[in-house]
């Protein structure tokens, strides 16, 4: 139902497909849930075709006049009514465009070049199919070109069989549009786009096959059925457009689980998408706040355990598990997922202790985001650069120190042991003086250190101190929550 409504509102199946792929990329929708929505948006898209066969010229003029009057009395400046007035203007212009399109199709048959093309299309069904596909590809709308074809058939420019084939061809054009626009997509978004393309080709194969069987073997099939339903050609064409979408969607709906598994194999998730996906969070957990909080805690710990891997590239004894850029993007997306889940939980009826715990996790999420950004800023500029041996040793020492410290933080957050918390708080006391002494020592023993390398040293040191401060803040939050639990 949501798919049908989306297709009716947007009047573009390509738009619905790429809105859904965007939601999948953002983690707001799964491919499995989006598949029936995209599939049935094709049926909702048929409204435009049916409007093309209705004589609504007078209605459109009244609508435009009414919209003009609403703008004249300045209702478009009202905060409350401005969206409604704008929407009414959009709908009126859509109908007006359809009306102009229908009227514009009538004089086309008087043009010699167009008449010759139509004669050729009437003689060659394949030419009509490919021509309609090309026009739909350019217009990015099967419904719009189908509406024009219905208007032309209604004026006698197209014969019945050619008009049917052109209707089928428009769907081929939008399939090609979706395929071209999806070339840079990967993983689940790619799966959804290919699913839509596959639907179009599946329906096309069925209806083109039935078309040729009916034409050459004189077996009454689709065209005969449409004629039996209504004697009016324009209604027959509108109905066959709807039938094309419904029959294909109805059959494919039965095989969505199997198709989802197949697409998963053909276009698997990328490393970035795998890193972005929560492991413990699910919507049902929101029904029990205590359970949801435990899952948030486990998910945040999972994020924290990724941070030592930022140093895999710099440490000789480490096996690189993640691409640093993908690690940053995926972790950032995951933290946003956790934060959104936490925000939803705040809207529930909660006790004071549970609310304090949620706010603690909310602040932790902000700290984790800042830590992730800081590590990315620290590692990305230096992992692909070469420096003097002295500066390289400084970078190695900083990396090893932070790596070890992060491993300790993970143990402390996981155990919540008061003695470990106190020890870590002492370790993370202000180290500004120590860092400055290290700088002075390096400069004194390396007077030829380049200005650029001194800047790098200051840059790394500032990020190191920032990480120390954030680790300390995070441990304070763990300590605070631990005391509240014990109380």
Keywords:
single chain; 487 residues; mainly alpha; Methane Monooxygenase Hydroxylase, Chain G, domain 1; 77% helix; elongated
Characterise the protein shown here.
With 487 residues, this protein is mainly alpha-helical. It folds into two domains: 2-267, no CATH class; 272-486, Methane Monooxygenase Hydroxylase, Chain G, domain 1 (Up-down Bundle). Helices cover 77% and strands 0% of the residues. α18 packs antiparallel against α22 (451-486). The two termini are 51 Å apart. 34% of the residues are buried. The mean pLDDT is 83.
Got a strand count?
0
Number of helices: 22
Percent strand: under 5%
Radius of gyration based on Cα positions: 32 Å
Counting helices, strands and paired strands, the structural category is: mainly alpha
């Amino acid at each position: 139902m949501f798919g049908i409504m989306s297709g009716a509102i947007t009047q573009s199946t390509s738009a619905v497909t790429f809105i859904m792929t965007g939601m999948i990329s953002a983690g707001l929708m799964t491919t499995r849930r989006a598949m029936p929505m995209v599939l049935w948006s094709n049926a909702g898209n048929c409204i435009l075709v049916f409007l093309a066969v209705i004589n609504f010229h007078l209605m459109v003029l009244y609508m435009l006049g009414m919209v003009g009057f609403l703008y004249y009395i300045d209702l478009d400046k009202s905060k409350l009514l401005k969206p409604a007035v704008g929407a009414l203007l959009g709908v009126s212009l859509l109908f007006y465009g359809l009306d102009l399109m229908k009227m514009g199709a009538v004089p086309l048959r008087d043009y010699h070049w167009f008449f010759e093309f139509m004669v050729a299309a009437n003689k060659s069904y394949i030419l009509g199919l490919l021509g309609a596909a090309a026009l739909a590809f350019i217009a990015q709308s099967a419904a719009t070109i189908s509406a024009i074809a219905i208007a032309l058939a209604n004026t006698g420019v197209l014969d019945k069989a050619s008009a049917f084939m052109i209707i089928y061809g428009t769907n081929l054009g939008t399939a090609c549009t979706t395929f071209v626009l999806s070339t840079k997509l990967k993983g689940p978004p790619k799966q959804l786009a290919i699913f839509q393309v596959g639907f179009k080709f599946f329906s096309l194969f069925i209806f083109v096959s039935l078309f040729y069987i009916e034409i050459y073997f004189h077996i009454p099939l689709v065209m005969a059925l449409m004629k039996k339903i209504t004697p009016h050609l324009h209604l027959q064409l509108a109905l066959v457009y709807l039938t094309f979408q419904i029959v294909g969607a109805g059959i494919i709906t039965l095989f969505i689980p199997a198709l989802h598994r197949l697409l998963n194999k053909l276009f698997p998730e990328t490393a970035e998408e795998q890193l972005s996906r929560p492991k413990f969070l699910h919507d049902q957990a929101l029904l029990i706040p205590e359970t949801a909080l435990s899952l948030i805690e486990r998910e945040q710990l999972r994020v924290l355990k990724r941070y030592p891997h930022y140093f895999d590239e710099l440490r000789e004894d480490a096996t690189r598990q993640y691409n640093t850029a993908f690690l940053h993007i995926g972790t950032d997306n995951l933290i946003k997922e956790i934060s959104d889940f936490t925000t939803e939980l705040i809207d529930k009826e909660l006790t004071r202790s549970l609310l304090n715990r949620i706010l603690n996790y909310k602040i932790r999420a902000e700290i984790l985001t800042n830590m992730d950004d800081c590590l990315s800023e620290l590692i990305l500029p230096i992992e692909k650069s070469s420096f003097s041996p002295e500066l390289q040793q400084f970078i190695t020492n900083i990396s090893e120190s932070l790596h070890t410290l992060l491993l300790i933080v993970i143990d402390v957050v996981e155990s919540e042991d008061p003695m470990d918390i106190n020890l870590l708080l002492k370790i993370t006391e202000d180290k500004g003086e120590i860092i400055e002494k290290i700088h002075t020592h390096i400069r004194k023993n390396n007077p030829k250190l380049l200005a650029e390398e001194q800047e790098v040293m200051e840059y790394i040191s500032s990020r190191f101190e920032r990480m120390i401060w954030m680790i300390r803040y995070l441990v304070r939050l763990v300590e605070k929550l631990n005391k509240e639990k014990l109380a």
